């Protein structure tokens, strides 16, 4: 099976600027070909990745408050 989605962007979930830059990045920047069909297919995965990095940042912030 071939890779459907790959990104060289690896935000640091402990860094607010990295997290915000990734979350606020428009989905079409993840599709280098500019293909609208590909974008529609990848948007759910990109959305999940953005949710994951947001949860990681929130978890890290909660950990800081508890320590």
What would you note in describing this structure?
The chain is an all-alpha fold. The chain has one domain. The protein is built from 2 helices and no strands. Helix 1 packs antiparallel against helix 2. The protein starts with 15 loop residues before the first helix and ends with a helix.
Summarize this, please?
With 67 residues, the chain is mainly alpha-helical.
Q: What's the number of domains?
A: 1
The overall strand count is 0
Could you tell me the mean pLDDT? Answer: 85
Q: Which sheet architecture does the biggest sheet show?
A: none
What's the helical proportion of residues? 55-70%
Question: Which descriptors apply to this entry?
Answer:
67 residues, mainly alpha, disordered N terminus
């Amino acid at each position: 099976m071939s890779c459907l989605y790959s990104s060289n962007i690896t935000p640091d979930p402990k860094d607010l600027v990295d997290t915000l830059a990734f979350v606020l990045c428009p989905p079409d920047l993840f599709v280098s070909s500019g293909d609208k069909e590909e974008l529609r297919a990848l948007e759910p995965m990109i959305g999940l990745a953005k949710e994951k990095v947001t949860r990681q940042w929130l978890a890290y912030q909660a950990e800081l408050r508890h320590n």
